[in-house]
Amino acid sequence: MPPLAHFSNDQSGATRDHWLEDHLEAVADLAAGFAHPFGGQEMAWLAGLWHDLGKYSRAFQDMLARARALGPDAAREGRGRVDHSSAGAIWAMKRLRGPGLALAFAIAGHHAGLPDLTRAKSHATLQERLTQTGLLAAARAGTPPPDIWQPPIPACPLPSGWDPAMWTRMLFSCLVDADYLDTEAFMQPERADRRGGWPALAELEPRLNRYLAEKTAQAKPEVDPINWTVV
Prior knowledge:
Layout: E1 4-9, E2 15-19, H1 20-35, H2 41-50, H3 58-69, H4 74-77, H5 86-96, H6 100-108, H7 126-129, H8 133-141, H9 146-149, H10 164-187, H11 189-192, H12 201-218
Antiparallel strand pairs: 1-2
Helix pairs in contact: 1-2, 1-10, 2-6, 2-10, 5-6, 5-8, 6-10
């Protein structure tokens, strides 16, 4: 069976499988689309391809296989925990060196949030995680396809004129949104189908202003001593 990213068990015992390669490619495309307006599409695409690289490891696939065999009881029994994000962060640094740091931050933090680089009290720093090269070796042993493992590298990974911290946060946001949306589309397709079709901001702004104006007009000075002025 091809490597899995996720699986879903319904109460009847039926199982649906989300193949890892499909997930990585879908997240890469989504993240690239989100990052296109600020010129980050190439790096965001790499972040999507590598964000779950550690899921190719035997430890992760064995964990999913055990949980999958439990059927609907998997949620109650728990699935365990295997670090699946550090491998991609390490690989980004090996492939891109300096420019790979932004990718490493985004990939390592795509579930728990951006890590500290060198100082942290309650969790491993990015620097510490980048030394865990055994995780990368385990992912590589799972034989990721060449188009996942060795995609083209951008000639100019980072545009000039950007603050590195802001750039990293923008890249991180694109990756997190893309990962969440593709996972949701598999796990909760009925919820994913409800996304989209929302009013534009130009339509929502006057609605907000009307609502705030009504709140201001209805405020009672003796109850609400602080009032707001709607500009």
